[in-house]
Amino acid sequence: MSFDLVFFGGTGDLTWRKLMPALFQAFRHGKLPAGGRILSVARDEQDDAKYRGWLKERFQEVEGPKRPSDEEFARFAEMLHYLRMDLSQPADYGKLKSWLETRNADTAVLYLATSPHLFPQICAQLGAAGLNGPKIRVVLEKPLGHDLASAQEINTVVRASFSETQAFRIDHYLGKPSVQNLMALRFGNALFEPLWRRESIANIQITLAESLGVGTRGDFYNRTGALRDMLQNHALQLLTMVAMEPPPSHDADAIRDEKLKVLRSLNPFTEETVSRDVVRGQYRAGHAAGKPAVGYLQEAKVPEGSTCETFVALRTEVQNWRWAGVPFYLRTGKRLAARDAQIVVNFRPAPHSIFAGVSQPNKLVIKLQPEDGLELHLLAAKGTGQQEALTPVSLDLDFDKAFAENRVGAYERLLLDAIAGRLNLFVRSDEQEQAWRWVEPILHAWAKDTTGPRPYAAGTWGPAAASALVARDGFSWSEEQ
Ligand code: BG6
After folding, report:
1. Is the CB of 340 inside a 6 Å radius of any atom of ligand 1?
2. Before 370, cis peptide (omega within 30)?
């Protein structure tokens, strides 16, 4: 299958830091369909050779094992091309069209790796230039809007030029291998399904913790905050994967219909429940990786006195027969104690214990990063006679080891899916809008609440109020168990 892959924003950070290295991995692993061309589009005046040289240098900043050797880069670079475009000029879309028509590939994937404020303009111009035929797919990178109205606006413009099946909205968390394994665990095995419900599960915790601060992205981050940057998309998408009903098939829409139902079943927030069930925080000076770290307000490009949240934890429920009454706790933040992304399913305790020693409920941990695996925590007998007691043990499955040969990174997977036209791991517009609809009352309540975010020291697990949120139900966060 021949394909053309076009990156708008071809000299931007996302392209050289994430997309090109991911494509290169796909190329190295022999997964990229042969006969492909990659076109980077940007405003700078340069030709293919100069762009290839520039990208080769950028690759020096990519993680060691992901860097190409000179010989590998030379082979990869044969696919790379560059086109100068001014995205406001209709004539320049004509140039793109001519380039694509030079060989009329089976599919052309247009990846908008630009600032999102350009999406409406680019989509409208693509439509006007006739670059929206059935062979064309458009990939949209987050953030897709900053609230429901702006997300709807983007979707309206996208819809004016492209059908829903041509629109690939990226949430790179859906490309992570553990998320695929969560689907496999739930719908490829019969073992867990009878337990995957309120009768057996006490609570579910989704943690997306980062140890890094906002780095040089202070200005972007300050307009965004943890709720929009991580919770509205990544954390909620994970929640839908955990809570969805078994879909009737593996089709994109069968899966996305079920995910949408979960989003629609989430307990809606009111001003009162926001103040009770949502905790926002902002890091102060502390430690990161054993070294002193400054507070958020001292980071570059962060305005004085900013009330932007760098941490959010919340409690919600999925209101349906399967999950009624089961708390779902979601939390994410920057400058936390560790880089750790995981979903913890805490089961209910044994109804009656006949053993001495610890009595600890079972839990299943789906680890997304830094490792990628599954842990099932059980109790086992230790000692003999009078000393016999239960002790916690865990069954560990390390996917990195088990599938070392076939590990595919999130962007690599999603780029290959976009080229192949597989929509399963992309977010449909109605899902995305429903997620905004659900978080909006939180944004509104915070805008009115003058107390601002709660401080937490860099290198900790966030404000104490986040622990209290879970303790109120008689539970604790995974790291406190
Ligand atoms: C991005 C956020 O979507 O995800 C970043 O904008 C965040 O702020 C990143 O750092 C985290 O992704 P990952 O895959 O490194 O956990």
Report:
1. no
2. yes
